[in-house]
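Here is one chain, start to finish.
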Amino acid sequence: MSPDALEAVGNSRSESFELRPADRATAETLPLLSGLPRQQLDRLLQFASMQRYPRGTALFEEGDYADKLHVVVSGTVEIFSTCRGREWGLFLMNSGDVLMPVAVLYSEPYLNSARTVSSGRVLLLDAERVRQEAAASAQFCLRLGRSVAGQLRMTMRQVLELKCRNAAQRLGSFLLKLADREGATAELPMPKRNLAARIGMTPETLSRTLQILADNGLQVRGRQIIVRDRSRIEDFCGPDPCPVSESERLKINAL
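Its structure:
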């Protein structure tokens, strides 16, 4: 949607929406909104909606202009780009993560696309109201800045991974992070073709690489991730090129 079309939509808006009490209570617990003054929450949530999406739903596409700020409430959303007919995965966004806030803050087109890889809920905040509150409130602006900073650091982490690890090591490291996050019942959050795109390899290479990992202590059976020999797979992956985690300080749950 172009900037002119978005302005027309905003000018035609004549009434507010009202979140259900349960949805509003959930929205107020999200890192972006938690602890904000009541009047500011009222303004931000005046035109908000809470949507439930099935797996595979497109939320926005490269080149779109944002009329909503998307905040993941539950489930997983894949951020990806398409080049020469192939998709390349960038991030897997999880509960509490804000999807590409820079496009909303500065009325820029999205540089990538987003779709759900599991069923889940997303809070949609009116983009113009978000810009107004960011301009007026240092606290809210810093919350958005925290999301931008977290995603920048994640991008730098991926660059370091590409520079310091081969494809098999990157895949092993990514699966270990999933296993650590989910525990004994860890499963792939997306189909294997999306996993290949996230790591930066073809589906055919993924199959061969999974066998290499199985020989080194980590197995994927169906969608289940099984760590059989942690010491061996950690040795195989090598030291983490960026061992400092920003998830707690910057409230980033993406992978």
